[in-house]
Design a protein that fits this description.
The protein is of the alpha+beta class. The protein has two helices and five strands, in the order H-E-E-E-H-E-E. A five-stranded antiparallel β-sheet has the order 1-2-3-5-4, with helices on one face. Strand 2 and strand 3 form a beta hairpin. The longest helix is centred in the middle third of the chain and has 16 residues. It is globular and about 40 Å long. The chain binds adenosine monophosphate and zinc ion (ZN). Zinc ion (ZN) binds next to helix 1.
Length: about 110
């Protein structure tokens, strides 16, 4: 738990948020400002500042398992999806999160 980290609070249930997926490592929930009809974030339950700070690589398995399940549940496998991780200062929230967005078409990435 990192004090004042909004995603730690979500992961711990201190900010009530519906989870679309949860396992022992990660939770997934809707982005509050969706840029596509589907815009889901997958985050580690533990505070990890950004992608390059991951030490326990088991987390990769849980993050991508969650991504795959969300893509399937949202039926994006035939509609187009993007998976994005901002880091190195490009991120707004300093708690690792994977964006899943869709539907998207080729050359319509924004
Ligand atoms: P990034 O620029 O990659 O750090 O993206 C941060 C994302 O977190 C943005 O898409 C925000 O809309 C989203 N976000 C910020 N606060 C919340 C919140 N309380 N619940 C859900 N999504 C949030
Ligand atoms: Zn955090």
């Amino acid at each position: 738990m990192m004090k004042d980290c909004i995603f730690c609070k979500i992961a711990l249930g201190e900010i009530h948020t519906e989870f679309l997926y949860e396992d022992e490592y990660v939770v997934a929930f809707n982005d509050i400002h969706p840029v596509k009809p589907v815009h889901v974030l997958v985050i580690p339950k533990n505070h990890i500042a950004e992608f390059i700070a991951v030490e326990d690589t088991t987390l990769y398995q849980h993050l991508f398992t969650a991504v795959k399940k969300i893509v399937g549940e949202k039926e994006l496998q035939t509609k187009g999806y993007r998976i994005i991780v901002n880091g190195g200062g490009a991120q707004d929230v300093d708690h690792l999160h994977v964006h899943i967005m869709g539907p998207v078409s080729p050359s319509n990435h924004e």
